[in-house]
Every structure is written in structure tokens, then in C-alpha cells.
Amino acid sequence: MVAQVATTMSFLSELIAAFGGLQAVLVTALCVLAMVMRPKNLPPGPTGLPIVGNVFSLMTNATPVVYTEWSKKYGDVFTVYRGPMMSIVLNGYAAIHEALVKNADVFSSRYSSTASVPPAGIISGTGIVREPYGPKLKEHRKFALVSLRDFGVGKRSLEGKILEETRALQQEMCKHGGQGFCISQMLQNTVSNVICSIVFGRRYEYDDKKFTDLLMAIDRVFSPTSVERLALSFSPLRYIPGVRKGFLDLRKNQVTLVNHVKKRIREHHETFDENDIRDFIDAFLLESKKRQEDENSTFTDEELTMIVLQLFLAGTHTTSVTLRWALLYMILHPAIQEKVQQEIDSVLGPDQDPSMVHRSQMPYTEATLAEVNRLASVAPFSVPHGTSSDTTFRGYNIPQDTFVEVNLWSVHHDPQLWPEPSKFDPTRFLNDAGKFVKRNEVIAFSTGRRICLGEQLARMEIFLIFTSLLRRFTFKLPEGAPKPPEEGVFLGIHSPVPFKLIAEPRN
């Protein structure tokens, strides 16, 4: 306890030095007031310190694991404090399904003060991801889904683009011969070019320096440290010298991405032709033009910037990381890799390209990818939710506009659902007849009304790219290379530890 008090006093001293005396006193007073005025009958939770709450316990890059352990003590619904900000954490499939599906009217909104990626404060639009639940969200989400379908999502026309990018990826891989290489950047290029063709109407070459810089900025935005993530929700941390540098670097990369999207939108304004709608940006501009007489229209350039940014970010990073996990699991489990290849060969033969119609004919491959989604849990948390009204949930009182964290990791690693949850085992998704069995407890794209907008696109890319690569190559570690761990790194998302591989051509 003495050490905790000393740590708290040190933190406050730095805060006062960073803010200036009067400002720090005011902030401290407000924090204390917020802590004193806590609502009654909240879910239980770990004891926090004055002012900073549970901040020090959350200064870890494995927060989903910490929350999963805390749920064993406090239950599937508990309370934590990020500084003075109260957060309700949902763990386990039953609690998450009950909140996001059965009580969707209450738990489908966003917390009003969320300052998370995409960057609040840099542009004023909320887009689809950050928009509270209501008519505007419904309108923009419906428009986005229809537009994505118009540009091929879920259709054979987009399969061709994905396979074209996969062939470009394979050509890049072949340049390395039998030498080990890191596939991370290549996968990002491939996946990003798919979403770029839909959103921007263009693709980028693998050696395009500006595009490489953009992908690096995406990596940085999706890989904040634990302290930087806390600084997003607990603003006083941003002014501490040791935190401020990293926070400003994070913001700089966010600005880089925003400026790139704005540039693409300006170019579309200059070349817009309503008789030739080339991509998502054009479709949005056409809708905006139709509503130009409506002074209440929300189809503005600020909203377009945020929506495109969200599609670009989500359509690049999580899918490419999922594919990296899939290849790593194949390397670590060569018998599973061989079985997947045998199934692909039996269905496609020597000359046929994979298609989504083949997915139902490849139950073992589909089971393997389902197990990748479960075990890797690339997005261990959903985008934070917010309550739209006061509610009573599982006997506890939860106020309106409460920050709600949804711990998807706790579902995918629940030993009651998945015996030996840390073991990679595709047979979890196969019945006695060898047929694929969908498990509702795999919620890699979240669930309920805020389920990921790009789920269908991501599933198309993962299946087509994975089967194409396994059909042509066998993946191994370089001779003498240490075996990579199956445990990943939590930096915003759950990524595998960097590794090199050899792509050995198959006959």
C-alpha cells in the first residue's frame, strides 16, 4: 500500500509540473469529485487508487488477459476506472450476447467522449464506427453496405480483384527464392490494394514509397502502447513528458492518414462525373449532390473523410494480421498444413482458381480458418460501446453514456467452450462426418447491431488469399531459425511475434 501511495504521489507531482499549479489543482479536484459521485449499485471490480483509478493495473500490453483473469474474481460484468472515467467490462459469451443482442437498444451506442482511433479531434466527422446509435448511423451504414455490394463485396467480380492481387503477392514472394523473408509488408500491400480499389478506385505498386509510408502509419496507429491507449481516454496523461512524446507521434501518424484520404477526396471532386461512378468516394459524392438542397444532410466531406479512413484502416490491418497468423499456424503445425493442401488440391485440381463457391466443399480448410479467428483473436476488444440510457443489467445499475468494453478474447479463450483453449485444433469445428460446424461463440467481428461492416469482405479475402497461397506454396521456417512462439503481442490488436518464413513452391 505504501508503494501504491508513493506511485500515486509521484504521478500527481508530474501532473502538476506538466499542467502548471492552478490547472493541475482544478483537474485533480474534478477527478476527486467524479470519484466521489460514483453511481450506486455498480458491478463490482478491482479497487483503484484515488484520482487515477485502475490506471497502473492497466499499464500492460495484455489488458484482455488481465480482464479475463479479473472476471474469475469479479464476474463476467465488472467495473474499472481509467482515471476518473468509469468503464463497464463485459466478459464471456453469455454476458456479451445478452448485452449486445438481447439488450441492443441500450448497448449499441458509443461513449460520447471516446477519443480513440480513428482520431477524434483531428476531423469533426464521426463516420460509422464512432457514430452513436440513431438515424444517422442507420442511414450511413445502409448506404455503405449497399455501396460496398455495388463495388463487388460478396460477388464474383471482386473475387477477380482479390485473386489478381494474390498473384502479384506470389510474384513478390518468388523473388526471394529459397531465402527466408518477412511476409508482413507484402500481405499488407495485397489486402490494402483490395480496399483501395473499392474506396479510391486505384491500387499501389509494392515498391511505391508513399504507399509504404502509409502502411507504416497504419501500423503505428494500430499499435499504441498501453500508456498511449490510456492517454486516449485519460487526457491528463498526455501532458506527462514520458507519455507526451509517444502520444504526439501517434497523432502525427493519424494526421498523415487523414491528409492522404483528404487528398484522394479532393482529386475525386476535380474529376467527378455522375455518369461514371468509379468507386465508393464517387458514390458518396453522388449521394451528397442529390441532397445538396437539404440543409440537414449528413453526407458531407467531413463524414466522407472519416468513413473512408475507417474503411481504409479496418480493411488493411486486421485482415493482413489474420493472414500472418494463419501462415504461422501452418508453419508450426505442418500436418495441418498438409491436410489443408490435400483438400484444396482435391477440390480445385491443377488449373482452377479458388472461388467462394468452393468454401462449402472445403470443410477442413474452413475449420482451420475458424480456428485461426478464434485462437488469434486479432481484435481482442470490439470498438468500445456506450449505453444510450440508464439500465439495469444482471441486477446492477449502469448509467446512460457509460463506457463499455467488450472483451472478445475472454470468449475465444474460455475453457468451458474450448477445452485446451491455447491449442490450435481445427477439429473443434468439424462433426463426426467431417462437415464444418459453425460455432456462434466465434465473434471475431463482434456481434449485434455494431458488427463489423467489413466482415464479408474480410472473409472473402482471407479464404481466397489463404487457399491460393497454400495451393502454390508450402510454408516453412528458414533452416536453423528458432521456432516462433504461438503467443502474440498485444499492441492495440493481437499480432504474431515477427518471424521469417520460406515459401517453397509446390509441384
From TrEMBL:
<keyword id="KW-0496">Mitochondrion</keyword>
<keyword id="KW-0443">Lipid metabolism</keyword>
<dbReference type="GO" id="GO:0102033">
    <property type="term" value="F:long-chain fatty acid omega-hydroxylase activity"/>
</dbReference>
<dbReference type="GO" id="GO:0006805">
    <property type="term" value="P:xenobiotic metabolic process"/>
</dbReference>
<keyword id="KW-0812">Transmembrane</keyword>
<dbReference type="GO" id="GO:0005506">
    <property type="term" value="F:iron ion binding"/>
</dbReference>
<dbReference type="InterPro" id="IPR008069">
    <property type="entry name" value="Cyt_P450_E_grp-I_CYP2D-like"/>
</dbReference>
<dbReference type="InterPro" id="IPR050182">
    <property type="entry name" value="Cytochrome_P450_fam2"/>
</dbReference>
<keyword id="KW-0999">Mitochondrion inner membrane</keyword>
<keyword id="KW-0479">Metal-binding</keyword>
<feature type="binding site" description="axial binding residue">
    <location>
        <position position="452"/>
    </location>
    <ligand>
        <name>heme</name>
    </ligand>
</feature>
<dbReference type="GO" id="GO:0006629">
    <property type="term" value="P:lipid metabolic process"/>
</dbReference>
<dbReference type="GO" id="GO:0005743">
    <property type="term" value="C:mitochondrial inner membrane"/>
</dbReference>
<keyword id="KW-0492">Microsome</keyword>
<dbReference type="GO" id="GO:0020037">
    <property type="term" value="F:heme binding"/>
</dbReference>
<dbReference type="InterPro" id="IPR002401">
    <property type="entry name" value="Cyt_P450_E_grp-I"/>
</dbReference>
<dbReference type="GO" id="GO:0005789">
    <property type="term" value="C:endoplasmic reticulum membrane"/>
</dbReference>
<dbReference type="InterPro" id="IPR001128">
    <property type="entry name" value="Cyt_P450"/>
</dbReference>
<protein>
    <recommendedName>
        <fullName>Cytochrome P450 2U1</fullName>
        <ecNumber>1.14.14.80</ecNumber>
    </recommendedName>
</protein>
<dbReference type="InterPro" id="IPR036396">
    <property type="entry name" value="Cyt_P450_sf"/>
</dbReference>
<dbReference type="InterPro" id="IPR017972">
    <property type="entry name" value="Cyt_P450_CS"/>
</dbReference>
<keyword id="KW-0503">Monooxygenase</keyword>
<dbReference type="GO" id="GO:0008395">
    <property type="term" value="F:steroid hydroxylase activity"/>
</dbReference>
<comment type="function">
    <text>A cytochrome P450 monooxygenase involved in the metabolism of arachidonic acid and its conjugates. Mechanistically, uses molecular oxygen inserting one oxygen atom into a substrate, and reducing the second into a water molecule, with two electrons provided by NADPH via cytochrome P450 reductase (CPR; NADPH-ferrihemoprotein reductase). Acts as an omega and omega-1 hydroxylase for arachidonic acid and possibly for other long chain fatty acids. May modulate the arachidonic acid signaling pathway and play a role in other fatty acid signaling processes.</text>
</comment>
<comment type="similarity">
    <text>Belongs to the cytochrome P450 family.</text>
</comment>
<keyword id="KW-1133">Transmembrane helix</keyword>
<keyword id="KW-0349">Heme</keyword>
<dbReference type="Pfam" id="PF00067">
    <property type="entry name" value="p450"/>
</dbReference>
<feature type="transmembrane region" description="Helical">
    <location>
        <begin position="15"/>
        <end position="36"/>
    </location>
</feature>
<dbReference type="GO" id="GO:0006082">
    <property type="term" value="P:organic acid metabolic process"/>
</dbReference>
<keyword id="KW-0256">Endoplasmic reticulum</keyword>
<keyword id="KW-0472">Membrane</keyword>
<keyword id="KW-0560">Oxidoreductase</keyword>
<keyword id="KW-0408">Iron</keyword>
